[in-house]
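Now for one specimen:
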Amino acid sequence: MCGIQGARRCMGEGGRHHECRDHGSPVYRREHKSQVRELFISVTRLLCPPNLRDAFEAYIMWSLAEEIDLIPAYYSEKGGGFWVALEGDCLVGMFGLEQVTNDAMELRRMYVDARARRRGIARQMLQFAEDECRRLKVFKLELSTSELQSAALALYRNAGYRLVREEFAETPSNKTVGSGLLRYYFEKHL
């Protein structure tokens, strides 16, 4: 297992440096591409119910082609950014932010490697994302997750996120598998 990387300087948007501690999240770089890809695929496959294997594999391919393999362009076009959590040279977590309105960002792709869970990494990434929104003077963070992610549901509720709606996702996209899975939509005013 990789050791935790200590305090370091990280490049933020606009070329400004800021201090990152422990799992403070450095901005995604090309050298992270293969580990981000592997983490996305492994977490998605772990979530997959046996009866939805084909739908999940199609979702993986769609998401790789439209987002994961194009992270710099995708998140730049969406007015956001993408960050990773590292322990030494090992990528143990990731997340993105997309601007959805002038007043709101959406948290995307927040995943933690299964071998690194229950150590506060997701909580630290969520805090970093909230702080980044505040730094950008965006004071609402929106997110969604599915019924398959009970740990994520607990994290968001415990962090003060308010459930704004539930819906069954029928149509697949790079944001959802579809297949009738129940999705929960949350927001938090920062």
Remarks:
- Confidence is low (pLDDT under 50) at residues 1-24.
- Strands lie at 8-11, 17-20, 81-87, 90-101, 104-112, 140-146, 162-169, 181-189.
- The two ends are 35 Å apart (CA to CA).
- The CA atoms of residues 24 and 31 lie 18 Å apart.
